[in-house]
Each structure stands twice: as C-alpha cells, then as structure tokens.
Design a protein that fits this description.
With 231 residues, the protein is an alpha/beta fold. The chain has a single domain (35-59, 75-221), classed as Rossmann fold (3-Layer(aba) Sandwich). It has six helices and ten strands; from the N terminus they run E-E-E-H-E-E-H-H-H-E-H-E-H-E-E-E. A six-stranded mixed sheet has the order 5-6-7-3-8-9, sandwiched between helices. Strands 4-1-2-10 form a four-stranded antiparallel sheet. Strand 8 and strand 9 form a beta hairpin. Helix 2 crosses helix 3, helix 2 runs parallel beside helix 4 and helix 3 (114-124) packs across helix 4. The structure holds adenosine-5'-diphosphate and magnesium ion. Residues 48-49, 87, 162 line the site of magnesium ion.
C-alpha cells in the first residue's frame, strides 16, 4: 500500500465577505496516496482552487482535520514535497525562465546540480529554448508550461495542478499532459489536476467531483487508495 500523503476528514473552508459566509469547501473527506492520478472536476466557483490551496497547506480549514502523514505537519511541511501549479500566472517577472524554475530548489536547499535539474525539467516539456527569456516575452500558454516545469524540477511527492492546460489549445494541452504523465510514470509522485476538460480528466485514474463545495468521487479505475467523500 503506498504512503498516505494527504488525508482530510470533514474539512470545511468558509469565507466571510461583507457579512456573508460563503462555504467554498463543505465537509471534504479524502485520502491521497503515492502514485495517485486524480482529476478534480467541477464548475467555476465549485471550490476546486480552494481545495487545492488547502491540500498544499497554503490555506487553513475553518473546521475539520487535514494531515500530511508522510510529509510533515501543517506549517512545517518539508520544503519541496508539494508542488503547486497555480491557476493564475505565477512566474516572477524579474527572473528568467531558468531562474524561476530554479527558485523553489534554492529555497528548499536542494543538494546537487540545480542547473541540470532545471535544464532537465525544461527539456521534459520542450522548453529549452525559453530558458533565458523573461516571463514578459512568453505567451500565457508558455507561462503555464514553465510553471509545470517548475513543479516537477524538485521531484516532489505531490503535484497539485490547478487548471494547468486552461490557457493552452487542445493539442498543446494534450502534449503537456503526455509529457507530465510520461515523466511521472514509475515514480511515487501523486498528481491532482483540477480541470474543466473531459479529455484531461479521462487521462487520470480517479475523478473527484466538486459541486457547490461538496466533494465526491466516482469513476475510479485506479487501484490506489485515493477516496473522496466516502471514507
Ligand atoms: N478569497 C476569497 N474570498 C471570498 N470568497 C472566495 C475567495 N476565494 C474563493 N471564494 C469563493 O469560494 C467559492 C469557490 O471558489 P474557488 O475555490 O476559486 O472555485 P473554483 O476553483 O472551482 O472556480 C466561490 O464562490 C468563490 O467566489
Ligand atoms: Mg479555480
């Protein structure tokens, strides 16, 4: 049985805005294990990004239990163990593509040759030619691909990708996903991809549905331990 990486029991996240309480995530219960391939699907506003930020430890549940059994405790998660591909542009403007990809490795004090780790990550997605460019010289789609390269460079235990193909045409999105899945095959890394695209969701083993903040799991064809809403 692979390691349990992220475990949630009745996790809720409410936002208070102008005296109104918005339930973005309602009582989510799930387990994410090594090697899991999960598509997180749901309409805009259903709570996908909120759930991903909670799983990354960037946000804190209003109630419920969230744990990272194999990775550390909230607030002290081991650096570099969880990679996040944000839905919105997230490259740092003054840094080149290479420097953006290297930054998390430097912050995590990764040992070894960071330069070749960066080059490998860029090559995985066919981005070597962009290495010395600044983000302002890239298209939105290229920025998303670079963010994906940044996510894999440190060999994380979990990759959380929030609509990573949202800015890409379908063939380019498919190529990005092909390259990502090929790169991850044979590794213990777990992958969660929030997506609107049925073609992307179909490539994953398990589908988690978000509807008005409620998480449920159907269409599981995987043999791993990820479960949602039913533990
Ligand atoms: N920082 C915030 N403050 C207030 N409401 C928020 C905030 N972030 C998200 N929401 C609300 O929470 C709900 C879920 O949003 P989100 O997680 O971004 O959904 P999705 O990623 O599925 O589009 C929406 O109703 C959204 O308006
Ligand atoms: Mg979102």
């Amino acid at each position: 049985m692979p390691d349990t990486l992220i475990e949630a029991q009745s996790v809720c996240r409410r936002y208070q805005q102008g005296g109104v309480s918005i339930a973005a995530v309602v009582s989510a219960t799930f387990r994410l294990c090594g090697k899991d391939r999960v598509a997180l699907v749901g309409r805009s506003g259903s709570g996908k990004s909120t759930l991903i930020h909670l799983m990354a430890g960037l946000d804190v549940p209003t109630s419920g239990m969230l744990r990272w059994p194999a990775l550390g405790a909230a607030g002290t998660l081991l650096p570099g163990k969880i990679s996040l591909v944000f839905q919105t542009p997230s490259l740092l403007e003054p840094l080149t593509v290479s420097e953006n990809v290297a930054l998390p490795l430097l912050m995590a004090k990764v040992q070894g040759d960071i330069g070749s780790a960066v080059a490998d990550a860029l090559a995985t997605f066919g981005l070597a030619d962009l290495a010395s460019k600044l983000p302002e010289a890239l298209s939105g789609g290229q920025m998303q691909c670079v963010a994906m390269a940044r996510a894999i460079a440190g060999k994380p235990s979990v990759i959380l990708a929030d609509e990573p193909t949202g800015q890409l045409d379908q063939p380019t999105g498919r190529a990005l996903l092909d390259a990502l899945l090929a790169h991850l095959s044979g590794t213990a890394t777990a992958l969660v991809v929030a997506t609107h695209d049925p073609a992307v969701a179909a490539r994953m083993d398990t589908i988690w549905h978000m509807q008005h903040g409620t998480l449920s799991s159907t269409g599981s064809t995987g043999s791993t331990g990820s479960t949602a809403g039913c533990v």
